[in-house]
Each structure stands twice: as structure tokens, then as C-alpha cells.
Amino acid sequence: METVLILLGVIVVAALAVIIYVIGAYNNLVSLRNRFKNAYAQIDVQLKRRYDLIPNLVETAKGYLQHERGTLDEVIAARNSASTANAKAAQNPGDADAIKQVTGAEAALTGSLGRLFAVVEAYPNLKANEEMIRLMEELTSTENRVAFARQAYNDSVMVYNTSRETFPSNIIANSFNFTAAELFIVEKPEEKEAVKVSFT
Amino acid sequence: MDFFQRQEIARRNTRLLEVYFALAVIGTVLVIYLGAEFLLNFEQNRNVDSNGNVNLTFWDPQVFTIVSLVTIFVIFSSSLYKMSQLSSGGSTVAEMLGGRTIDVHTADLSEQKLINVVEEMAIASGTPVPLLYLLSGEDGINAFAAGHTTGDMVICVTGGALKYLTRDELQGVIGHEFSHILNGDMRLNLRLMGIIFGILCLTLIGRILLQTRGRKNPLPLFGLLLLVAGSIGVFFAKLIKSAVSRQREFLADAASVQFTRNPGGLAGALKKVGNSGSLIDDPNAEDASHFFFANGLTESVFTWMSTHPPLEERIRELDPNWDGKFIPVHPIRHEEGADQSGNKLSPAGSGGLQQLGGLVIASAAILPQVGAPTARHLDYATDIMSKINESLIDAAHSTMSAVALVYALLLSPDETVRKSQLERLQSNPVIAQEAERLFSMTQNLESRARLPLVTLTIPALRNLSAAQFAQFTNDIQSIFALNGQADLFAYVLQKIVLRRLNPHFNPPPNRVPQYYAIKPLLPDCAVLLSAVACAGQVEPDAIKIAFDLGAKQLDDPNHVLQLDTTAYDLSKIDAALDRLNQAAPQIKKTVIGACAETVAADGVIQENEAELLRAIADTLDCPIPPFLAV
After folding, report:
1. Can you say how many angstroms the Cα of residue A114 is from the centroid of all Cα atoms in its chain?
2. SS3 B36
3. pTM, rounded to two decimals
4. Size of interface A-B (CB pairs under 8 A)
5. B470 contact A CB<8A
6. Residue A22 domain-assigned?
7. Which of A27, A38, A149 lies nearest to residue B101, judging by beta carbons?
8. Each residue of B608-617: b (16+ CB within 10 Å) or e?
């Protein structure tokens, strides 16, 4: 009977050791996941600022750009779809597809903004408009902050993904459905820089 | 009773708790052993002798050893595990209960109100700004604070608290939480959680065993046994938990009133709790029930099981004339502009608050103020915050501009030096540009507002990724190096910033005090006292007098302490502080007391003396409120 008891003791101890390891690895993954989700929240804050600035920008430009309605409408449409995509991603930054959609929508938005600014170059009255200058400066500042927040997010995603893929925590990751996180990469290489606004 | 004494009491309570816990473990082991013995007897009929009589054996050394070893191992390892998990900071508890962080940049007016209240209190008490969490799904009015040191504090409030409490009442509640932080209750609470989890583990294992199947399987019976024994253990542990936390609640209420000078605020909050309740829905609330401001669980019939004193009693302590009626709750509407960034509320009686240059102060006034901020400090903090340029506060709240702001504060007023400093920052030109822009704004900043502004940047800086923080640290060191030895403020700034952020990014191993006697640290004390003496005095005689006053406070029978005029050197001070940081709290108290004596030798506290004292206090984890005129 004693041997059964000893065996029982050993089983309990071994089971406990395994359980503790699994809990530790699981909690580590959860904490890394929370970290990159929190980092996305920082991007979210800055993106929302950006989306709030754009309608003002379009309103200010509308009076001057009577014949460029197409460009203006394109900007508004891109802004709306980016805003929706961002709202969805902010709810669950762990969803790789949602992140891909945001990066795509953001790239489209940056592209259409670029086209708008190219058009604005040809209208000196609009370029000199004080409100326009202020809005464009704020837009640049916001895009800088997005870039900074994006860098922080990508750093945290890298750490999480590495932990998710290395042995032995990858076993835990797979058993508990820890999906790979998506990096926030700006797709078109020429859009990598913040939209530069110069009036010289 | 001062800050250090209260911490000592908290520590003693922890020890008492551990004794009770040991008793609970022994009791559990005995119960399991007796149960196991009983089962074995029942199982095997091994004691049936030739006549068919059953002899029950009650003492079997082998079984006893095995049972006790395994049980103790299970309890201790799971307790240690839980405690190490919790040692990663207060955020763990907040996230466990489903809290989400409140961004300092929030547009929500009620959240803004909370952030302002918390920032004022942090400046007033000299602690870092805690991380803020919100339990948005909870409608009851409740809050809690968690964390190991003042450096990694977290304060969490429920949605109900934000919705139903006025600014004064919110201030009372947050003051209560800050008192918990300053009293060192948090360590005790976290240890409690770990210990109870250990005993709980037994019931968990029991439950698992109970569900195993199989013929002639003894495991379910064992499981039942573990379940029963574990439950009894948990029952006793909860009793202990409740007894300890009830006492702390009254203390925190009293300290909050001392802090805000407004018993009506806290009393009002408690009266509203009477009506709207403070229940927390989350199932994990049980584990953290002793952390909360008001009772988070349904009132148990037995008051000795409750983690908080009865609500009525608490209200009567604060408001002896209470008519017994609770206040009905309704959502508070927020006035626009009252609490937008840059608190515009005018504090009462702020007229007489002086600038720091040459402040008259008595040394006896410094030490008792550690960890015990009063309403005057709160007024001072409100006053300071209203004087800081709104765009600087805005910059402090956003991560990228917070980085730029810290660099800006480190930039030298000398243009050539500044240029080379900015060159060092060219790895990120956008931030360098922003730093230059903010530099011109900081030139108008009152000198007494500089360190509080730094305090405000810390929450935003916590959002940096690990890689970004490494870059930030490098940049700070490199521009600080260009500042030259003369800039005491820059030294204090970078020390405080790095010290408050490092634990978040590189969690330190649990620090056990290395020094319990002051003798090995006397050379470091000499360095510190000499530096402080040289900071405030110019005449060699005056310096010597100041030094001696401080040295008298330390136990130095062999006269090891010698004035060292070269000690006013930042690297020496740094090394001395790092070593002193490993001392036991009582020693830290004595050292700070000695420094305070030296500072007050001429009866006046100069700006650089104040800054140096603040850096010393911050490194040694003793929160000093701002210095006020006597």
C-alpha cells in the first residue's frame, strides 16, 4: 500500500510541476498579447485624430477646389473606409485579417491624401489659407505620432510572435489558440515617409 | 505615527499573517492525514486480525511523512508561484478583473476628471503617477489600488464610480487608495492573495481527482478528501484575511481625510455606496476582495468574515452628525472646461505659496511629511498644475511628445552645448525637432514646476516598446553626458525618470535588503552628507557645520564619517545612492533624516538642496511631498 501512496505522491508532484509550467507559459503569452493589444490602442488614438482632421481639411479645401471634386470625394471615401477598418481592428488587434485591412485602407488613404496635396500645390490661394496651413501641420504631426506608435506596436508584435513560435512555448500556444499577430506595415514603399508638406 | 512606523507595522502584520498561515497549513495536513489513514483502513481491512476483530491504526509514520510532504509542497509551490506572478505588478490584478487602461489622452470628460485628480495627488504626495484602469462593466461604486512599491502602482475604478461621484467624492476615494499605497498595505495584500491561492490549489486538485473515472479507483475519494480539507483551510485563511484588512480600512479613511482636508468627500462617496452598492460582478473579485475600497462581495451574515468594516460605522467616523440616510445616485453631468487638460480649478488659499528659492523650513518638518501629504500639499499641487502651460501638459500626455519633452528638459540653455546635444538625437529627427520646439516653451516654466511636469510624463512613457525604451535610455545618457557635471537638475531628472520606468521594462529580481546595520554604509553616508552640505552652503565653515549636524544623527562611534568636499560629484553620489538603496527601511529613514538635518542647518532650503533631497528620497523609495514654506 505504501508503494501506491509513494506513486501517488510522485504523480501529484510531477503533475503539479507540469501544470505550473503550462500556467507560466500560458500567462506569459497572455501578457505579451495584452502588451501588443495595448500598443495598438496607442495607434488607435492617433489614427482617430487623423480621421477627425480630414473632414475639416476637405471642408476648407472645398471652396477653392471647385473642379477637383473627384479628388476630394476620393479622400473622404478612403477616410471612411480606413476609419471603419480601424474601429474593427481596435476591437481585436489579435485578428490578423483585421490588421491587414487597416494597413491596406491606411495605404489607400495616404495615397489619396498625397494626390490631394499634389493638386493643392497648383492653388496658391488655398496654400496660403491659414486654416489650411494649420490643418496640414496638425496632420503631419499626427502622422509622425502614428509612425512612433506603429514602431512600438511592431516591436511588441515581434516579441509576441517569437514567443509563440519558439519551442516549447509553441506547444502551449497552439493548444490554446494563440494566433500569429500581424505587423502594421505600410504597404507602398513611397508612402513610408510621413506626408511631407512644404510651402517653399 | 510616521510613514516608516506604519510600514514597520504593515511588515509586522505580514509576519503575524505568516504564523497564522503556518497554523492553517498544519491543520490542513492533519486533516488530510487523518482522512487518508481512515480511507486506508477502510480500504484494505488490513487490520483484521485472526479473530476477525478490526484494529484501527491511527498512526502510520510512513503515510504521515508522505502526506505531509506532498501537501506542504503543493501549498508552498503554488503560493510561491502565485506570488511571483503577482510580483510582476499591480497590472496583473487589474487585468485579472477585466480592467482596461485609461489613456491619459482620453476625450471622455469623466475619465479626464479622474486623471486630473490622480495627477494632483501624485504631485502632492511625491509619488509617481499610478497607472489607471477602468472596470467599465461594473455599475457599483468601488475602486482599488495594487502594486509592490510606490513605483509600480495601479489604481482601478469602476464605471459606477466615474458615473456617480462628484469631483470631491472621487478625490476622497482616490485619497483613500493613495493612503493604502503609502502605508505599504499593498505588499501585504499581494502576499495574502498568494497564500490563499496556495491553499485553494488543494481544493482544485481535489476537484480534478474527483472527476477521474475507473474501477476500484481510489482517486475520487482522495479528491473528496482534498476538497474538504482544502475548503477548511480556505475558510480559516479567509478569516485571517478579513481580520487584517478591516483594520487597514479605518486607517486609510483617516489618512484620506488628512490628505484632502475634506471628510465630506469621502463620507459622500460612502453614503452613495450605501444606495448604489459596491458589488463587483467578476468571479475573480473574491480573490481580490481585500483590495477594494468598499465591500465587493455580498455582505456575509457573519461580520467577522467581511473584509471591510460596516459601512455605517465608516460613515459615522467621518461624519458624526450623519442622519443615517444614504444619498441617491444619479449620473453626474460634467461642466465643459472645468477639467480639460490643465486643471483650471482655483485652489482655496493658494495665495501664500512661495517660490522655492530660499524657502524657510525647519528640518523637523521634513521627515514626518514623508508619505503623509496634507491638504496644503494638495492645494500646492493644484496651484502648480494650473500654472503650467496647457500645451506642455498635453505634450506630457502623448508618448512621442513625452519623449521629446524629457529631452527638452535636459537640453542645456547654452546654445553650443544644445546644438551638439540635438545632434546626438538625430537618430529620430522628428523627435529632435519636437524637442527643440518644446525647449523654447520650457524656458518660461517656473523651476518648481519642472519636476512635477516630469512626473506627468511617466504614464505616457510606459507605452514605449522595449526597444524604444532602450533607445530612449541611450539618448538620455548621451545628452546628459554633454551637460557637464554642474547640472544637478539634469542629474535628478534622468535619475528619477529612469528609476521610475526601469521596473516596468526590466522587472528587477525581488530585492531583499542587503544591509541591516549602518556601519558598512557609513562611507556612502559620508558622501551623501558631504554632497548635501556642499549643495546648500558656500563657506567652508558653514559646510562643516551642516555636515556635522547631519552626522550627529547617525550611529558612528568610531568617527568614520568625514567631510569630503570632492563628494559633490554626481557619479560618486550615484554610486552611494545605489548602495544605500539596498539597506533596510529603518536605515533609509535614518539616512534621510540625517540629510534633512544637514539641509535645514541654515534654516533655509535652497533649490538645489531641494532637488538633491528629492533625488535621494526618490531613489530610496520614500515619497516626499513638495516643500512648502513654514
Report:
1. 20
2. helix
3. 0.77
4. 77
5. no
6. no
7. A38
8. bbbbbbbbbb
pLDDT tens, position by position, B61-91: 777 787 788 778 878 888 877 777 676 667 7
Stated length of chain B: 630
Tens digits of residue pLDDT in A36-84: 888 898 899 889 989 999 999 998 888 888 888 888 999 999 999 999 9
Structural domain count of chain A? 1
Interface pTM, i.e. ipTM: 0.80
What residue ranges do the domains of chain B occupy?
375-505, 519-619
Model confidence band, residue B349 (pLDDT cutoffs 50, 70, 90): very low
Among B101, B123, B118, B128, residue whose Cα is nearest residue B167: B118
Going from the C-alpha of B161 to that of each of B75, B105, B310, B457, the distances in angstroms are 37, 20, 19, 25
The total of other beta-carbon atoms located within 10 Å of residue A191's CB is: 17
Residue A116 C-alpha cell reads as 490631394
Q: How far apart are the CA of B210 and the nearest CA of chain A, in angstroms?
A: 14
Bridge partners of B146, per DSSP, are: B154
Residue A35 Cα, gap to closest chain B Cα (Å): 9
C-alpha cell of residue B425: 538625437
For residues B166 and B332, the answer to whether their CB atoms sit within 8 Å is yes
Residue of B42, B70, B226 to mutate for A, most A C-beta atoms under 10 A: B70
The string of pLDDT tens digits covering residues B523-577 is: 888 888 888 888 877 888 888 888 888 888 887 777 777 777 776 777 888 888 8
**B154-158 and B359-360: which strand pairing?**
unpaired
Structural domain range at position A169: 34-191
The CATH number of whichever domain residue A54 belongs to comes to 1.20.1440.20
Note which residues in 22-41 of chain A have CB less than 8 A from chain B.
23-24, 27, 31, 34, 38-39, 41
Domain assignment present for A199:
no
A41 lies in a domain? Answer: yes
Chain B: closest CA distance from residue A165 (Å)? 19
